[in-house]
Structures are given as C-alpha cells and as structure tokens.
Amino acid sequence: MSATQFFNEMTDFSGETRPHYEKFSDWLQTTPPQRLADKREAADALFHRGGITFAVYGEAEGTERLIPFDVIPRIIPAKEWVDMAAGLRQRVKALNAFIHDIYHDQEILKAGRIPPEQVLNNAQYRPEMQGVDVPGNIYAAIAGIDVVRAGAGEYYVLEDNLRVPSGVSYMIEDRKMMMRLFPELFAKYRVAPVEHYPDLLLDTLRAVSQKGVTDPTVVVLTPGAYNSAYFEHAFLAQQMGVELVEGRDLFVDGGHVYMRTTQGPQKVDVIYRRVDDDFLDPLAFRKDSMLGVPGLLDVYRDGNVTLANAIGTGVADDKSIYPYVPDMVDFYLGEKPLLNNVPTYMLRKKDDLAYTLDNLADLVVKEVHGAGGYGMLVGPASTKEQIEDFRKRIVAAPEKYIAQPTLALSACPTFVERGIAPRHIDLRPFVLSGGKEVRFVPGGLTRVALKEGSLVVNSSQGGGTKDTWVLES
After folding, report:
1. Torsions phi, psi of 258, nearest 5?
2. What total of structural domains would you count in the chain?
3. Looking at the domain assignment, is residue 364 inside a domain?
4. Does residue 88 sit in the same domain as residue 57?
5. Side-chain-side CA neighbours of residue 125 (13 Å)
6. Does residue 47 have a pLDDT over 90?
7. Domain range spanning residue 25?
8. Interatomic CA distance for residues 422 and 300, integer angstroms
9. pLDDT for residue 63 is more than 60
C-alpha cells in the first residue's frame, strides 16, 4: 500500500467491492444519480422543517445551519462491531476508574504512571470534587468516543469526549431519514436498530440516581435556545419523556434541588446536564453565569442530586491526558488495550517538541483544550505562512499542544455535487455507563469531511453526517 492510499470502506485496494457492501453496490449501480439528488433535497427539506439545525459560534446571532446529510450509509460488519464494542467497554471502564482515583486516593499518580502535574495543574481538574463520592463510581455516564480507521483498516481512538458529548440526535434522525427515503434497502440488510437509544439513556440516568431513590425525577439541563446543540437537548428530553429545563427553572432549598412547575416545586434527583462545569453554579465557579443554579455544587457534594456527567470529568478527556489512557487500562483493569491510541507527541517534552517543530508540515497539531476542529494545524493541508504562524504559537507555549501523525483516515463513498466520490470519515459511538453494565446502540454517528481531501469532519468546519449501519449478521 502506498503512502497516498487509504482504506476505502466499500472497496478493497484492488477495487473489488467488500462483501458487506455487495448488495448496496448492486443497488447503487441501478439507481439514477438524479434519484439520489432528489432524495438528498427531500432530506434537507425534512430536516429543516423539523428544526434539525445547529448554531455556529462566531457567526451572526441566530445563524443556524443544517448539518449536511449524506444518503450513502457507512456499513460495518457484525464481527467488526463486536470487536470494537469490547474495546469501547474496556476504555470507558478505565476512564471512569481513573476519574474516581484522581478525586480520591490518586494511586495512579503515586505509582508514577502519570505525572501528577499533568492532572493536578490541568484546567479541567476540579479540586472541589476531591473526596466526593458519586453513585456506582460512574463519572462519565455518557461518553462519546471518536474512532477512526487508518492504515490497512485498523481502528484507533482519536479522542474521548466525556464532558457533554453531542451528536446522538443526528444518529437517530439520520436512521429515520434513511428508512423513510430508501425503505427497499432495509429489506436487503439486517441493520441493527438505534432508535431505542433514548430508552437506554433514560435507564442509565435512572441507574445513577442517589442510593435510596426509587423513582427518580430526571431533567435535561440546557444553556438555552442559542446553544449550538439546543435541538439535541430538546429532542432527547422529548424522547425520554422528561422536562427540558434551564438554570432559572431550578432552585436549591433545604439541601435539595427543585424544579418550578405549575403544580409547585418538584424535587429533582438526576440532572442530565448539557452545561459546562464553569457555568453550573455561580456561587462556586463563574460568578457571572446566568446558566446555572446557585448552590448546586453543595447539594451535589452532599449526595442529594446526581449530575450526569459528573463535575470534573473533563480532566480525563483533555488531549494532554489522552496519551495515558493505555496506562489506565493496564493500571486499573490489568489488561492490554483492545483499541489503540493514535501515536502522540507531547510538546511539553523537549524531544517531542523538537521533532514536531522539524516536521510541522507532516503532522496534525492540536490544542490540548481545543474542540470542534478549532485550534489545530493540519500540516499537509496548510500553507507555509500558516505553518510558520502556528510554529510561533507552539514555541510560546508548547505545553498547550500535542502532535500526531497525519492519518490516512478511511474513506466512504459520498454523494457530492459532482457525483459519488470518497470522503474521509470518523465514528462517534455513544457509550452509556450505569448500574452494572456498559451499554450502547450498535454504531454511532459517522461524520464525513465533505471537502475533497479534508480530514476535518466537525460540523462546525463544514462536515456532514451519514447513517451508520451495523449488520446483525
């Protein structure tokens, strides 16, 4: 395989259709391109009518976009999914064990497996959580793990999202759209369902309620209608049959959290929060926050309400901590990682910094606290001026960056303006931890970089989504 080749999900390196795509390939060859174009237009109209949009920060206030939807699915064979699922379970168990440990005995730091300053000086580490017990030691009840395929087809974890991972509503809506537009395809394949995700989510949230609560009241806490993921907040609340609330709808009294209702105050037991740590409680964090609930942290620390995800989970999904996840798997589970990390250079290290500065044109460099595709350099796709500008930023604060090789991400056929062409993709499965088991629906959200040659799949950077089909047999 040459350096310029990449793994194609539908065809092998000789151009032959992979077995799990054969029926779809036959269908595609007999389907006129105009029908695909008409169906894509119909999907856009239906998504817009349903309010399935996202806001883009930095643009005019109120600007909303459709996330481009591609009508060609990404198909994963059953055996591949079984192997990936085992790796996801293992990884999330280790991450939850790590978060519990650093807020309690800090054994992994004492053992020298992770430099203490990497954790204790991390902007996402919350000293307020030290010694706080959470139900079942589950800190990240909902995790979005970004998985990519590279090389000859190996899967790698690119990123762990443990704070307020988003995108699951698009996974569900993409499936509904495909079933509506192309019902004949679902007669050809046994595709594992994803529509029951809200039921699993509600079960998970109820399972992490405080001990002794038999019929927990669950709410979804949103920053409000101007948040980029507001559609998802409202969608999940509606699908679970629980209230969507803003900070002003909740208040603290007598050591508990209550929701204002037309029938009077109602005690809240579990808050599925889609609000960042800094804005949750103006008495404890940002004093100028209008999004949180004054006094919430005290109620949480006293064990009278559950927050999912827990305060302080961000320290485990920070990009400066990511290189140590294999150590976590070994330390807490005594196992070898089933899903590998992408090789990563930590620029706070002298040798890693020197190598990176010498090879910026070939690497991807990311801010350790960055998200959404912002604050990163994709060397091969950058100009000399952009590279030199980024070099200055790295030299000024190397500890704020990591670097990784530019992966030849796998590609999937995608219906673009000029027809069907390969575009690079990733996958975000949503992993739910609650009670005794780790659960998820098969698949996740496949994101696709619609610009030719682009490796950035984020919706904020022009990426789109695909339906993800995990085959049942």
Report:
1. -125, 155
2. 2
3. yes
4. yes
5. 18
6. no
7. 19-341+431-470
8. 48
9. no
